[in-house]
Amino acid sequence: MKMEENVLLKNFGTLRVGGPARFFCTVENLADLKEAVGFAKEKKLPLLTIGGGSNMYFSDDGFPGLIIRNQMLGMEFGDEDEKGNAVVSVGAGENWDGFVAETVRRNLGGIENLSWIPGTVGASPVQNIGAYGTEVKETIHEVEALDTRTLVVKKFSNEACNFSYRNSFFKTEEGKHFVVTRVLFRLQKNAPINTNYKDVRAYFEAEKNDHPTLADVRQAVITIRKNKLPDPAVLGTLGSFFKNPILSESAFAQLQKTYAEMPFYTVEQGYKVPAAWLIDHVCGMRGYRKGDVGTYPKQPLAIVNYGEGSAADVRNFSEEVRACVKDKTAVELEYEVRFF
Ligand code: EPU
User: Fold this and answer.
1) What percentage of the chain reaches a pLDDT higher than 90?
2) Ligand 1 atom 43: the closest Cα is on which residue?
3) CA of 340 to the centre of ligand 1 (A)
4) What is the pLDDT of residue 194?
5) pTM of the model
6) Burial profile 99-131: b = 16 or more Cβ within 10 angstroms, e = fewer
7) Which residues, judged by CB distance below 6 Å to any ligand atom, belong to the binding site of ligand 1?
8) 320 has catalytic annotation
9) What is the mean pLDDT of residues 319-329?
10) pLDDT grade for 190, boundaries at 50, 70 and 90
């Protein structure tokens, strides 16, 4: 395992911003990971593990400790039981969409609606990735993670992960001591297809396809995402920059008086409102741009770096968007991305 120094983080995050990491290494197996953690401990350095860097904002100052890039690979497909359920064990460093493609190829259902999400398998439970009516928590069976204090791998059941909207145990103070090493998914042959999300339904209506297969759903989601969201291979982006706010009954009722046409979904904790709609229709900030940083014209919840925007430029820009939404609606948008 090679330990490098002063490695520019802008090359390891899809927003393409960020100063140097004091130390940087790539781990391919558990022994590497333990060695890297030991190195950080010995030198009393802060430690941060990254996957694809597709949801991480790195500051212009960089990171004063050790960045570990997790590239632990491997996919093991277990046998199917009589109901067609199979447990698949996947290394945290596997590319997420490569894994989804393989499950669809094997006709195993459960994560096809999560096609074309950038990043790695290991990051998927951390923020409970979700799209088009599915969240990864629905198929996660178990998460294996190294406790960086004891160097022991611990297994977390689905329940122990404490999943909620874009959140999990691994984002808590205690959870931050763990590095995800493997994720076990429970997938199913002939699983029910979920086409409830508006955009997916509209896609199949236009295609006149009443009985989409898993491969059709994957294709639909890829097409929808490519049409709406910036491609990290082309533009600096972290996807959605903010979470969709969940409002209390009274806050929602108040807002509806002014914005009767505001879309919403009822969820357990209240009313979920699309942040993209607030940014677009309340603030008129769809496609708004300052220098090299702007909201993406087709989906303003994504903030994009058109070239030379710095981390500070992105942060200031995002604060301006938040301030407008807060001013006009009293809603405080929470960040979906993670700041380091
Ligand atoms: N909208 C606008 N103007 C726009 C675009 C959208 O007003 O230009 C409004 C529309 O009312 C639309 C609504 O926003 O119906 C929702 O838009 P969309 O379906 O694109 O989804 P979203 O709520 O903005 C969430 C996730 C995405 C995920 C999509 C699809 C969050 C924070 N974001 O976005 O996840 O792909 O749903 O399920 O929950 C990500 O996390 O990085 C991400 C891209």
Assistant:
1) 99
2) 240
3) 24
4) 97
5) 0.97
6) bbbebbeeebbbbbbbbbbbbbbbbbbbbbbbb
7) 131-132, 199, 228-229, 239-240, 243-244, 263, 274, 276-277, 280-281, 286, 299-301, 336
8) no
9) 98
10) confident
